[in-house]
Amino acid sequence: MSPALRIAARELRAGLRGGLRGLRVFVACLTLGIAAIAAVGSVREAIQTGLGREGATLLGGDAMVEFTYRFASDDERAALKTLGDVAEIVSFRSMAVVNGPDGPERALTQVKAVDSAYPLYGSLRLDPDVPLTDLRGGDLPGAAMDPVLADRLGLDLGDLFRVGDRDYRLAARILAEPDDAGGGFELGPRTLLFTEDLEGTGLLQPGTLYETEYRLRLPDGADLDTARAALETALPDSAYRWRDRRNGAPGIARMVERLSSFLVLVGLAGLTVGGIGVASAVRAYMVTKTATIATLKTLGAESRVIFVNFAAQIAAVTAMSVVLGLAIGAALPLAFGGLIESRLPVPVAISVYPRPLAEAALYGILIAALFSLWPLALARDIRAATLFRDTGGLPRGWPRPVYLASTVALLALLVGAAAVLSGMERLTLVTAAGLVLAFGALWLTARAISHVAARMARYKALRGRTALRLALASMGGRCGEAGAVVLSLGLGLTVLAAVGQIDANLRSAITRDLPEVAPAYFIVDIQPDQIDPYGEILAGDPGVTKVESAPMLRGILTEINGEDAESVAGPHWVLRGDRGVTYADRPPEGTKLTAGTWWNADHDGANEVSFAAEEGAELGLKLGDRLTVNILGRDIEADITSFREVDFSTAGIGFVMAMSPNALRGAPHTWISTVYAEPEAEARILREVASAFPNVTAIRVGDAIDRVSELLRGIAAAVTYGAAAALVTGGVVLIGAAASGTPARVYEASVMKTVGATRQTMLISFALRWILLGLGAGIIALVAGILAGWGVSRFVMDTDFTPALGAALAVIATGIALTLGAGLAFAWTPLAARPARVLRARE
């Protein structure tokens, strides 16, 4: 070990004086990959820390107790007050109405009714800057409104608008709410008013869809688990949801965790692309050291001394690259902290966090070891006779079994670490399998390109096409660039192609999955005594093509056959939160039963339920299973007597559960309706329905699609940026491959000039060579990217997949452009070389 390390130290000193010539691509690839992973991980940690630090502010209290479609009873309020200060929040959707020049104008709004205790934490910023209680002055109740909604309705301070059957005065505009990020996805901008001012609106009737939240400020030092246990003891039979400051914004936290984990995987794929550069750089470096190795062998050095010598050099350069990558990855969030905070709706605690840096360092070390081991293992077998012979590179064949086993172990360790640290085991394994398959396909492609090019160069049909034959012969030569270029660029383009396909499908998922004829409006909160006159109004409108209506309640599926539903079926989306429940005495028109039978129209026996077939299969349900559904605080049990097809992609009315009427007899509820209409009739329909029934809420399907599409565009942009980092790394590898092949092209050009080739012929030959290599890499990357995009879309995002032609052509064009650009950038030295000087030096 001692002689090997002394030799390594001397060579490193010489290498540092020479600017690490031969290992610059190694440093660049490893540094870029580590920096990308460290930066993404640091931002994720900053968001999670900010969410945890400001959990009480985001939630609006130390804890929150939520009731669905009802207020807390007197006993429940008393139990809550024993825990600390209480603030009551009521949230629901409604329509804000103003009298415009052409008649009433309406817009969907998310109403938030509060009491004088709001907010318990944080501060509400209004324009003008006045206390919330000042909104109550004047002849009419005051309200604050989101500036977007106020501008949409043309409201100035002091103007009147109507919600339900009551008029309000716009007293302020909302600049910032302390608990805005914790509320989740909302379809309409905010209107803020006092709960007691809801009297007379006619909005909160039995069955209306609304939620009440009771935020708690606990005494200093109070334990959250103790407070929750005390409430459960005081209210053993109450149906409520508990959330505390430890999970103040669960939706955002979950989205950030998944997106950042996905981006780390994309970054890891980019680091794998860099691994190709690492392998190419180490191989090229070992080729330049062939004479040194042969000399050491001549002087008696053993193979293990050779291996330890160069492994120590690579380890030292890896350590330097890791430190540089971590420094850049930690500095990027600090440098762009203001921009990051301005783009996110949650508090972000920008700082240097050890954990993401340690993860990035681990990935970098494993990648460096994995891709350096093979060329190092081959280099140890260089013979002393190489000193007197020009063999043209490292020994061919496979390394010794111990190195093959070590390679497999390093790969397993890398994939295992990524699966554990990302928290997305399935996606990690799919990504790893895809990268391995892509790597294998690209390696076979490189071999095939070399073989086919060598054969085609000898075709008689190509005689007279000197530039093309030269390009093909060079690609088919032993020292050609086909392997390095196709592997490095192809893997980078594969990542870009996969993300491009995912991006394109993500952007078009909503519009693509909608049916050709979608409803214009969802109408909710229709009271039972309003459903008949509502139907008569729409039946007389010539612009309405179809109306579908159904009674609706909201319920939580709590138990399956007497056991906790989630413990039986797992964390399925049907079990997260409350789901729509309807009832019907006969199957609705178009219903297709897949199993069982529907109850009789006059059924008055045991409660029965018909369940959605696909969701039932995912939950593992079967005919005869007993479900317990909590509706308005009451547990209702029903036996599954049928399964039916429910196509949620129609954008129409679809219920997971439909019960027999006797199960819900007497339960307060409302009706939901979808209205299909001609586009030019939409405004008139909204005006007629809202004027006749001020309590109902109309949700325009197009607006909901726009909101979701906006979120998807942000996610798609983040994923695209991650893929760009992988492509940049591939570009660095490509440049390194072009630079390392310069000496061989100088010798080649000198020989060809000697036999009469012109500079133009050589330039065309170089251009054709790189175009063909880029085309080959692009085509293989495109096929692999489409397969990867299909897998992620189908099995991870659970959406349909359609190949994106534009993204596909862009990948092929990018491959050709990158290879051509890199190749021509290093073509001038061979073209300018003087044959006599080069050939004499070669001798």
From TrEMBL:
Primary localisation category: membrane
Residue intervals of the ABC3 transporter permease C-terminal domain: 266-380, 724-828
Any Pfam family matching the protein: FtsX
Gene Ontology CC annotations of this record: plasma membrane
Keyword terms: Cell membrane, Membrane, Transmembrane, Transmembrane helix
Species in which this protein is naturally found: Palleronia caenipelagi
Domain of life per record: Bacteria
Name of the protein in its database record: FtsX-like permease family protein
Transmembrane annotation, as ranges: 21-43, 262-286, 307-340, 360-380, 401-421, 427-446, 770-792, 804-833
Subcellular location: Cell membrane
Membrane disposition: Multi-pass membrane protein
